[in-house]
Amino acid sequence: MDVGKAIRDLRMKAGYSQDKLVVKTGISRSQLYFIESGRCVPRIETMEKIAQVLNMRVSDIIIYAETQYPSKVD
Fold first, then answer.
1. Does the pLDDT value for residue 72 go beyond 80?
2. pLDDT at 17 exceeding the cut of 90
3. Fewer Cβ in 10 A, N or C end of the chain?
4. CA 61 → CA 7, 72, 74, distances in Å?
């Protein structure tokens, strides 16, 4: 599952640019970039900030990530 891609999708669907989400959440632009590019996994506190701005629950983001970007099992 790719939480970063899910956050990017949900951010864009909500009509937020990266800059606008950064301002609303208080996280850094580089942190959001690393999350959305899959270079790091966000802490739960960061997920909560993002979910709140997007009017979602953290579980909604995780469910979206799991359905849209499932983990590949070999």
1. no
2. yes
3. C
4. 7, 18, 25
